[in-house]
Amino acid sequence: MEELKDKSLHLTAEKLAEELQKMDNYTTFYEDLQVLAASYDVSIDDFKNTLVQAVNKGSMETNLRNAVFHWLRSHENNKQMVVREEITSRESLDYLRKAQITWERRIQKSLESMCEEIGIHLSYYRSKADRDEMLQKWNELSTYNTNLERLRPVYAPKDFLEVLFSLHNPNYRMISDDMIWDFTYLPLKVKTLSELRHLYRDLATADLLLGLTTLTKMSCGSTLQGEQERIALGEKVLEYQHAPVCQEFLKLCAPRSLRGRLWTQILGSNVKSSEQHYTELKERVLNYDMLIDKLITKDVQLTACNDDQYFVFEDVLHQIMLCFTRDTDVLSVFNSSTSHPILTSLKGKPSKEAIYPPNGIIPFHGFTMYAAPICYLFNDPVSLYSTFRAFYLRYWFRLHNISSHPQSILGLCILFQRLLQRHETNIWSHFMSHNIHPIRVVFKWLMKGFSGYLLPEQLLNLWDMIIAYDSLEVLPLLAVAILSFRKDNLLQVNTLQNVD
């Protein structure tokens, strides 16, 4: 039995070692290990034992533990330690996979039609004068001359919601059109209220979140002292650089001064190669002009620039989002079976087809708001980009993709509807009697992660919870709580406009 156990452990270690080699920080980790192996702490006469001792004494052990932590999170199977290609695997439900393919083709066709209407190419190589101008204005991209008058967003959240409404389970016979009030005919398992209470049980201790206690400083003199104590504790937590401990600390929200560092540690975005990667992406922006760039610029102008909380970040948002469109690593999170990106030739270059856009994402109206709140956390664009990218790859990509995953936008909509229907029946019945679909009230909140709908500090507290509990389920839970809190007012109105 012991022999089988040792063999199983050995095979698991081998598989884990293979998986770690695929991670972004492997190169940096391996280089640090080589430096350590060549140091005086490691003896060639007893290489194995002295190397293990040296690893345990320094930061290498913590880095390795963090690497395993991020690997476990990405595979979501920490009990059996079996590698599951959960993100890139084939969607199990055929009709959802076909719906995603149809939706992608639809928005791609809309993009191509826009090109024909405006009379521009999807992508082309920049002239030297254009490149020099953009490089000169890189830190002031809002002044870069771009004509956006004839451009419009390819789609908005309400368009995507209509697609979700049109989903049809072929194994379920619709009895009447009334069934569209609920998604229960879709076989997606979501948590019950009891399960959510267990997941967020730490919040039931009646300890106020740090961001909320800040609001009561004027009425409670001890609050400031408590915040200072928590900052001191947070500094100690960050000294150890152990991601799971940082994640546990975050459950009562982060002090403003520490939030960026905590997020970076938990999301694993503090990779040394980030600066080189960002430089490469910037070079691609300078070399190639794409229609997607203009859509991003238009979105920044329509959203962040019109928001009193985010307009000051216009220039850095241009930088971050233009680099993001060139990041081909983002393709890895999308279901490979439903990815049908446009293949295009670059104007002004030899005929060669390439995926368009390079990151596989055609932005919707409000896409920039995924990045805007993170601008409050970093002064350095490299750290800002790497953290935004890590956040997107971990969470946000699920909010505009049709999938049966419990935390996909479809799963979150189902969770919201079931919680509202079962625990706020008066609101549900009132909406139904006046032909107001509840999900239409909150869908834009869910799809944008409440960005643009909450004040930045409130929003960052909410995103603390997403990272701390590694779950997007807090979004529909908050949506139901808001409707519950405003129940008396909602029961007095009878149109969607008045509800908004």
From TrEMBL:
* Record protein name field: TBC1 domain family member 19-like isoform X2
Gene3D superfamilies linked to this entry: Ypt/Rab-GAP domain of gyp1p, domain 3 (1.10.472.80)
The lineage's top-level taxon is Eukaryota
Gene name as annotated: LOC112692553
Q: Which stretches make up the Rab-GAP TBC domain?
A: 253-470
Q: Which SUPFAM superfamilies match?
A: Ypt/Rab-GAP domain of gyp1p
Looking at the Swiss-Prot or TrEMBL record, what is one Pfam family this protein matches? Answer: RabGAP-TBC
